[in-house]
Amino acid sequence: MQMQFPKDFLWGGATAANQYEGGWDEGGRGPSIDDVFTGGSVNTARRITIPPEADAFYPNHEATDFYHHWKEDIALFAEMGFKVYRMSISWSRIFPNGDDAQPNEEGLAFYDAVFDELAKYGIEPLVTLSHYENPLHLTTEYGGWKNRALIDHFVRYADTVLRRYRGKVRRWLTFNEINMLSVPFGSFIAGGMLPETCTAQDRWDAMHNQLVASARAVRLAHEIDPENQMGCMIAYMCVYPRTCSPEDQLTQLSVDRLHNLLAGDVHVRGAYPSYAERLLAEEGVTLKVSEQDAADLRAGTVDFYTFSYYDSRCVGTAQEGDPSTGNGALGGLRNPYLQATEWGWQIDPKGLRWVLNHLYDRYQIPLMVVENGLGAMDEVAPDGRIHDPYRIDYLRQHIESMREAITDGVDLIGYTPWGCIDLVSASTGEMRKRYGMIYVDKHDDGTGDLSRHRKDSFYWYQKVIATNGSDL
Ligand code: BGP
């Protein structure tokens, strides 16, 4: 038995302003935390420099310049056949400092034009309110998301854009990969807190504040337009027990709950799960939930659940000679059954079927894979084209796995592979780690004319969408 993709399946692609939009000091935009983040290299973290250094290169200042190429890029997305386009609004383009009295009209008008252009092609926007980006002022003046003051600032920003784009945008995600705050990697990128002074308690306080802010935004969105569909976004870092020892099963259970499930449980169920207190205590963290917070969380549960899926890893007892994975966010052990990318991310399409089933068993609400893809170093071949069979292979196998999950009975409503057009890497700040089906001529030393080129995967994905996933 083999089911097909539902006929209204949302095929598309995903980007985010912090890595794609550029125009960092144009149109009245204020600086964001990404504007003080320089590039790293393979598996080395990016560097934070406040204020920006005059001679350092900040990859996202221009990024791949959606700000000046949006018409051309949307036309290319339409050519691929996108039904949906996941993007984010840059908060500091709307409120340059995050706590301003009035929004920046030029910023609001920019996204109006983008949404109108998408509508022209019948592409539905899926908008992330906060994708790894805060106005920098909220870090320098407030210390980032551990400060509860950010809840009100975020809700005001959400209120502004929800009202402005009412009817133009119907599907929203609140915080990108909110659960990255469960690991030190998320301190700055997800929480706007300087890593050297950020404690585990700060990170979990920040996550709590974002969960409350998210719930309040969800409730507001439903009030503003009952047709709004509100989703959460979780980085699902699939984990397996390294061996069949009972200890390894329990380690897997704890890691899965702490890093993957906890935040989503709050988003979907409107309350912290019963396992939270003990698990957090083991991290040295105390959960503080006021009565008002509890009421807010209950009143703002999400309509659908979205996640990113790139790889999997093992946890538990290391075996002789086991290397750890090169993916710094969660660490973990190598799985001897899997190949890894150049950046140590283990390629595991079957794991996606496992995760989809795991999540649907748990929540029974519509699911969407809003990030997935292969970061690779693409070359322009002597024939002037970009041949990326490795990316086609990766995507094909993950789409097959999604079809298996649909056959298993999972309500999967859409798929937006990450970085459908080349953009800056979040973890390393590199340009050479490319995900796109559209190549952008831009390099780590800042050179390149930003011209766009269709890769082989562009034509392949176009065919996948045209046949609703039946010709892979
Ligand atoms: C996710 C982020 C994205 C993105 C992607 C790929 O965690 O939501 O912003 O960049 O990972 O990661 P990277 O760019 O580090 O390869």
Automatic annotation (TrEMBL):
The UniProt entry's GO CC annotations, sorted and at most eight, read: cytosol
Under SUPFAM superfamilies, the record lists:
(Trans)glycosidases
Q: Which InterPro entries match?
A: GH, GH_1_N_CS, Glyco_hydro_1
**The entry's keywords:** Glycosidase, Hydrolase
Give the range the annotation lists for the signal sequence.
none
Q: Name one GO biological process term.
A: carbohydrate catabolic process
Q: Which Pfam families match?
A: Glyco_hydro_1
Q: Name one GO molecular function term.
A: beta-glucosidase activity
Tell me what this protein is called. Answer: 6-phospho-beta-glucosidase
Q: Its family?
A: Belongs to the glycosyl hydrolase 1 family.
